[in-house]
Give the backbone structure.
Amino acid sequence: MSNLVYLYLIIGLALISYGANLLVASTENISKKYNISHFISSFIFIGIATSSPEILISVLSSLEGKGNIAIGNALGSNIANISFVFALTFLLFNSINSERNKILSKEVIGFFGILVILSIFIYLILLDGIVTTSESTFLLSFFVILFYLYKKYYYLNVDMIENQKYISGLIILSSLIFGLILLLIGTKIFLDSSIDIAKSFGISDYVIGLSITAIGTSLPELASSIESARKKNFDFIIGNILGSNIFNIAIVISIVGIIDNHLTEALSKTDIQRDIIMMLITMAGFYIIIKNYNKYITKILCLALLLTFTFYQFNLYGISI
């Protein structure tokens, strides 16, 4: 294997990171220009933007008959988004959780409930090791219906102080498109190089998706979360994580069922149970952290999530500690 593949891996990661920064900045400008709720703007714009690598990987992998990578990437990204991205952000910027309202908004609780329901559904769907077209259709339909029912939360935040109507919509759109292009190109480069590296060590497609691609495609979430933390914007962090994780299940995995519904290798029921349990554990930790106001308990929980994520990654590769 040529050493160039490692260089391509770094280039891909750099493009993903820079493209994500452009996308995040553009979506922030959109929310300010049109006075859209912080949570909803981050949930929709940043959530979709930072999920675009997973969506692209799902399409490309499914077209190549490697749907296992897409499924592993979606589940692994959801785990990494909370136990790595979210936990690390809160550990580094613990003060962002100290000045917010003590009661979670109905929109946060509602969309967290949607994430829990989708996680249960995806467990039931993956029990037989595959995703069928009908299952994908059901998953997408359920998501669209719930998303429509929650339209009452897409309110305009007319009291927002940081109004930036003077910013040209054309400039924002251009930046958005350019960032998306960089993100998608970087994802393709990263996907190809990471698969080459992993295959040289005899790693399965599913584990590749759960580990290498999952962590790599979580970099946009990490970049946007850290930027939001610096601005002490708690809603942007929550919206980004919830949005990305919901889109990963509802869209990314559904794409597999539509394009590659006959997986070359059915997923192990044991693996699925392990990963769904890990997802539910991280989600429980996520909810406890955003409800907690003791900085010491929050740090302990964040450290616990990071350690759990580390042990989980070692377990994927059969490394005993």
User: Anything to note?
Assistant: DSSP finds eleven helices and no strands in the chain.
